[in-house]
TrEMBL record:
The name this protein goes by in its record: Radical SAM protein
Keyword Glycosyltransferase appears in the UniProt entry: no
InterPro entries assigned: Aldolase_TIM, Radical_SAM_PqqE_MftC-like, rSAM, rSAM_sf
PANTHER family tied to this protein: PQQA PEPTIDE CYCLASE, RADICAL SAM DOMAIN PROTEIN
UniProt keyword list: Iron, Iron-sulfur, Metal-binding, S-adenosyl-L-methionine
Residues of the Radical SAM core domain: 13-125
GO molecular function: catalytic activity; iron-sulfur cluster binding; metal ion binding
Domain of life from the UniProt record: Bacteria
Length: 276
């Protein structure tokens, strides 16, 4: 058996700031008390530590908040490319509000289709620059996918409400096991990196940002804790998805087949904390 530690998706969460304010955002951006762009030095260190633990990620997904809102997006992308032997592709998931600079498009073109865009189309009122982004991708011959979420056209039938990050849903142990068993996240082998930590799921990552609480029984690795030997971190990575975790008690579960779906990107009024 190969001893290599591999994940399908490395969700590289580089900012908790966003140009939109979606009520049901799965990363809970409107509810984060002090949103910030991850300083680039921190982002570089997260990437370095991640690739010491994981030998390979099929894909790095640059995500947030709105990743293109990060003032050092170009540098972070450039840094990611240094690990080219340890990942397959890079995907930039954007809400269609920001047109990347020519410098960014040129860098992407040089990578010969290893970097692609996922442009979420939340409708012309919100994803205002969608057509310009697509036109630029065509001009630079960069692959992209558009997922449409407006009106009756909702990709995957719309979004899911996972919980408010604060309320224990009062599951019995049996119900908790069922929620975890039906959840797609542990099966997908995604890793979410943010705040110097690698999480097995977005929800505990969001809970940490919203409430400051970490899961009490695993489900994350502190990438910046140098007192944990690398071999121990690698061992934790091998078992990262073995739950359920305390955070699952607060979550409705990402049950692709049965979860209730809602129209995407309903906007909340802007709050002053977003402007910080
Ligand atoms: C949190 S967003 C961040 C990237 C970017 N700001 C955007 O909206 O495309 C990442 C992805 O999660 C999806 N998403 C957000 N909230 C969701 C929810 N409650 N249920 C399912 N998918 C969700 C978005 O459509 C997007 O494809
Ligand atoms: S656009 Fe909406 S879904 Fe995407 S990060 Fe911003 S608030 Fe969340």
């Amino acid at each position: 058996m190969s001893d290599k530690i591999v994940c399908k998706n490395f969700d590289y969460f580089i900012t908790s700031r966003c140009t939109l304010n979606c009520k049901l955002c799965s990363n809970y951006i409107p509810y984060i008390p002090h949103p910030f762009h991850t300083p680039k030095e921190t982002a570089f260190r997260e990437m370095k530590e991640f690739f010491q633990i994981w030998d390979y990620a099929d894909r790095i997904e640059l995500i947030g908040g709105e990743p293109l809102f990060h003032p050092d997006f170009f540098e972070i992308l450039e840094e990611s490319l240094k690990y080219e032997s340890q990942f397959g592709k890079i995907r930039i998931t954007t809400n269609g509000t920001i047109i990347p600079s020519e410098k960014i498009f040129s860098l992407i073109r040089e990578t010969d289709k290893r970097i692609e865009f996922l442009v979420d189309d939340y409708g012309p009122q919100l994803s205002k620059n969608l057509s310009q982004i697509i036109a630029k991708c065509d001009e630079y011959d960069i692959p992209y996918r558009v997922d449409t979420y407006h009106g009756d056209s909702q990709y995957s039938n719309g979004w899911i409400y996972f919980g408010d990050c604060k309320t224990d849903l009062g599951y019995s142990d049996e119900k908790l096991a069922q929620v975890f068993h039906r959840c797609v996240v542990p099966k997908e082998h995604f890793v979410m990196v943010n705040n110097g930590k690698a999480f097995y799921c977005d929800y505990p990552m969001a809970m940490y940002q919203v409430t400051g609480n970490l899961p009490t029984n695993g489900g994350y690795i502190d990438l910046f804790d140098d007192s944990i030997p690398l071999e121990k971190k690698r061992d934790m990575a091998r078992h990262l998805w073995e739950g359920p975790f305390s955070s699952c008690r607060y979550c409705t579960g990402f049950d692709i087949e049965n979860a209730k779906r809602y129209p995407a990107a309903e906007q909340l009024p802007r709050r002053c904390v977003q402007e910080g």
